[in-house]
Design goal:
Chain lengths: 340, 172
């Protein structure tokens, strides 16, 4: 690794981190704006032109709010829990390729922070770590409702992690590799995995909704029964860390979905290599557009479907999604065996 | 009673989910009904029962004769009238020296309007009166007459939407 690589990596880290934080800020506005539009109203439009400065106002408000630590909390764990949640949320994006390779002065720069050979497993492992933060936050708050919220989040995780894993297995089988570059390259060479395995894509889509605790599966913070869930006792900046990690998880999950089933940075019917470095720009734009669509889908679904009840969620996870995942693996295996 | 029997495709949920998503997407692009409140005001329909006013004759004399019919008819007991001899020689002999309405108690039923034999008390279209103290929501005779002055020339909100500056007389 020479100086060029080090500098390139540093730039990529800063750019990716900045992009995530910026996207989170935009998402807080988009969430409210889309909600308004779906409900025949306008949403926030008071701060700045078209309400564009709303995220700044929100952020300032969170910083200026009083930081409260209740008496009964287990202080070290209480303070650590938001950190445990946010670190994996920001780390997971590292292995996701967000564009084709760039050629600069004879060096090939992969538009990906870290190209490790177990990229998929890395993401699966880290997204499960995040839930420790939620459970610990619930437990250390010294209050019953946060505890219930934290426990729910872990139960929800195991209901969905298996279905999610099974949905990915089919993709790994056809692409023959665990790195995202291999998976995307395979989809570029043939066709998007979505067309080949729509069932797996569907199972995966539902699973990431549950994984990121978004409606209709936001049982960890179901307000009407749990008074706010695991973060009830959190305020100001500690709360915004949970908030940030939830949105960062949504971005990563959307990128994950795009890479696995929607060709990553691939633009259909266009050969990016022929366009040179301009092709890279377009590939990044294509990737951003696809991720943006799934982020919109998150909000769209939130304001369309009612929340699941807890047992319904478990039943869906164990009795519907898991068998569907197995069916998909069986079908893919059969197809591969017949073709071989 | 109509019951819901799921069709074959409904049992897969997916079609129903897609239908739901389609409905919200269509709404996303439709015209928005929002009224930008402080800048634009909702014009209530005719017959809306808002803030009260006391009517005046053309020469500026109050129409009210302090008969206390409205006070008697009021189910919320929010009207407080003190009658006295009129200060003028010709015309009506009775005259209110005090006419107060406690707007916090008023239920805006319009019974006072119906009970009034002289068409003196009326409810107007004004809905956005507010105050920071309870005392400021007791409107006196002077205030009620001022409401008449601002409302006599047509709907206040329609005029405000056209850019006219009209202050609603409630102490804030």
């Amino acid at each position: 690794m020479d100086t060029f690589d080090v500098i390139a990596s540093l730039i990529k880290v800063v750019v990716v981190f900045g992009a995530i934080i910026l996207t989170v800020a935009i998402m807080t506005l988009a969430e409210r704006r889309v909600a308004g539009f779906i409900q025949y109203r306008l949403g926030p439009n008071r701060v700045g032109p078209w309400g564009l400065l709303q995220p700044v106002a929100d952020g300032l408000k969170f910083f200026l709010k009083e930081d409260i630590i209740p008496d009964n909390v287990n202080k070290p764990i209480y303070l650590l829990a938001p950190v445990i949640t946010i670190v994996p949320a920001l780390m997971t994006f590292a292995v996701i390729p967000f564009g084709a390779s760039l050629e600069i002065a004879g060096h090939t720069v992969k538009l990906q922070v870290a190209d490790i050979n177990i990229g998929l497993l890395y993401i699966l492992a880290l997204t499960s770590v995040g839930v420790y933060g939620l459970v610990l936050a619930g437990w250390s708050s010294g209050s019953k409702y946060p505890l219930l919220g934290g426990l729910r989040s872990s139960a929800q995780l195991i209901s969905y992690e298996l279905a999610m894993g099974l949905a990915i297995v089919g993709v790994i089988m056809v692409s023959g590799g665990l790195t995202f570059n291999e998976i995307v390259a395979h989809q570029q060479a043939t066709s998007w995995n979505f067309w080949k395995q729509p069932l797996a894509a569907l199972v995966f889509l539902v699973a990431i909704f549950a994984e990121t605790n978004r409606l209709p599966f936001d049982l960890t913070e179901a307000e009407q029964e749990l008074v706010g869930g695991y973060h009830t006792e959190y305020s100001s900046f500690k709360y915004i860390m949970f908030f940030l990690s939830e949105y960062a998880n949504m971005i990563t999950a959307s990128a994950f979905m795009v890479c696995l089933f929607f060709g990553g940075w691939d633009i259909p019917f266009v050969d990016e290599a022929a366009l040179g470095n301009w092709g890279v720009v377009f590939s990044v734009l294509a990737f951003a557009f696809k991720v943006g669509f799934f982020l919109f889908l998150y909000i769209w679904i939130r304001w369309t479907f009612p929340r699941f009840r807890y047992d319904q969620l478990m039943r869906l996870g164990w009795k519907v999604m898991l068998p569907l995942g197995l069916v998909n693996i069986f079908a893919v295996g059969l197809w591969m065996a017949l073709r071989a | 009673m109509r019951t819901y029997e799921p069709r074959f495709w409904d049992r897969f949920y997916l079609l129903a989910l897609a239908q739901g998503l389609f409905i919200t997407l269509v709404r996303f692009f439709k015209r928005k009904d929002t009224i930008q409140y402080p800048e634009k005001k909702h014009v209530p329909p005719a017959g809306y029962r808002g803030l009260h006013r006391l009517n005046k004759f053309d020469d500026g004399r109050i129409k009210c004769v302090a008969c206390e019919m409205c006070q008697t008819a009021c189910p919320a007991h929010c009207i407080d009238i003190e009658p006295s001899a009129a200060p003028w020689e010709d015309g009506e002999e009775r005259y209110p020296v005090k006419f107060e309405i406690d707007l916090l108690r008023c239920i805006f039923c319009g019974f006072c309007e119906i009970a009034c034999p002289k068409d003196a008390i009326e409810l107007t279209e004004i809905y956005d009166f507010s105050a920071y103290t309870r005392d400021n929501l007791r409107i006196d005779m002077e205030g009620l007459l001022k409401v008449f002055d601002v409302t006599k020339n047509g709907n206040v909100y329609a005029r405000q939407n056209r850019g006219e500056r009209i202050e609603v007389p409630i102490a804030r």
